[in-house]
């Protein structure tokens, strides 16, 4: 993160002339053009299959510009780690991973909601977790994988499908497709046929679809999207309102509809995170706590951060970490996400 590197070089001594110099060296945040909201013409409007494919393609093209740092927010984008991605790309992926896990937990009839999943992940210290918590870890893991279908093996292993999956066959199915949406549809349908357990195979199919899409779009890493949209009522078809499944004859059409809906949510989240990132960067030079730079990096790369994790990774005392988060909340640049007075969790 080049921008954060520049933050760390600022002199913390509080004399008046140095303060003026510090302000001069602060990241540029004023007058930056914000990332634009997804235009209405790029949102799903009708049930017509052609219109659904157009909306999915248009939405993904505009979202692609955000991931490549081409849509506004120059300061935010300039701190990217890989591929010109915006500085908040890690947080974006992990927050969508939480939404995907929440959606899949509902599909599996598990009780945990997004708040419970976040608590289980960030307060457990990496120990044993519930079946829904394992779903969350699955999506957190694959959101960090390289965007290649044959890189899905660790995700298959978490689902107990490692022996049943032929990653090269899935990659071949995606490669033979004429476009990114069809690559996602064909690879996920192939993944569904390879898995012996239908419920686990469907979860793996969602993972494979996102990997295939990201690979064809040239993204550095997958973005959890297909599972996020699977509970949308507008995807249901037929008299019984049946939700789409990878074994359906019209799965490719359902995948296009689902990505058209999912990218609306992903784009809106990116707009919000870009605004919050700019605010956090604007106050970063004034943070004098040792380890503040590392804590900011953690906030940019994950959905949530606890004071205990920040203290451990940034070399702070527990009290100093809590005081730093209290100040960030007071400055309005970080939110407390749990709503509790104890065991608090913070994020953009």
UniProtKB/TrEMBL annotation:
Residues 1-12 have a biased composition (Polar residues). Residues 1-32 are annotated as: Disordered. Signal peptide: none annotated. Pfam families: DUF1403. It comes from the Bacteria. Residues 22-32 have a biased composition (Basic and acidic residues). This is DUF1403 family protein.
């Amino acid at each position: 993160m080049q921008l954060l590197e520049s933050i760390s070089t600022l002199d913390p001594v509080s004399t008046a002339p140095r303060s003026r110099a510090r302000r001069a060296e602060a990241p540029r945040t004023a007058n930056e053009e914000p990332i634009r909201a997804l235009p209405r013409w790029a949102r799903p409007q009708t049930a017509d299959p052609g219109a659904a494919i157009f909306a999915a393609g248009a939405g993904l093209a505009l979202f692609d510009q955000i991931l490549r740092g081409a849509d506004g927010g120059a300061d935010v984008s300039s701190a990217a780690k890989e591929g010109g991605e915006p500085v908040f790309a890690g947080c974006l992926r992990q927050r969508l991973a939480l939404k995907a896990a929440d959606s899949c937990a509902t599909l599996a009839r598990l009780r945990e909601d997004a708040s419970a999943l976040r608590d289980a992940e960030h307060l457990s210290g990496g120990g044993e977790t519930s079946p829904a918590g394992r779903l969350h870890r699955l999506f957190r893991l694959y959101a960090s994988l390289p965007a290649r279908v044959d890189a899905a093996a660790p995700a298959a292993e978490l689902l107990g499908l490692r022996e049943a999956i032929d990653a090269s066959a899935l990659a071949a199915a995606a490669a033979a497709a004429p476009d990114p949406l069809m690559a996602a549809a064909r690879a996920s349908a192939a993944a569904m046929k390879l898995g012996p357990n239908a419920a686990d195979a469907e979860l793996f199919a969602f993972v494979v679809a996102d990997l295939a899409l990201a690979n064809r779009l040239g993204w550095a890493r997958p973005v959890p999207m297909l599972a996020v949209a699977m509970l949308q009522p507008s995807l249901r078809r037929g008299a019984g309102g049946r939700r789409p499944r990878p074994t359906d004859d019209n799965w490719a059409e359902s995948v296009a509809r689902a990505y058209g809906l999912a990218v609306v949510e992903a784009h809106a989240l990116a707009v919000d995170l870009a605004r919050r990132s700019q605010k956090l960067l604007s106050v970063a030079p004034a943070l004098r706590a040792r380890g503040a730079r590392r804590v900011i990096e953690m906030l940019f790369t994950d959905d949530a951060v606890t004071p205990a994790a920040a203290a451990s990774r940034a070399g702070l005392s527990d009290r100093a970490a809590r005081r730093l988060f209290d100040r960030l909340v007071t400055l309005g640049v970080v939110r407390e996400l749990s709503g509790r007075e104890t065991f608090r969790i913070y994020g953009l």
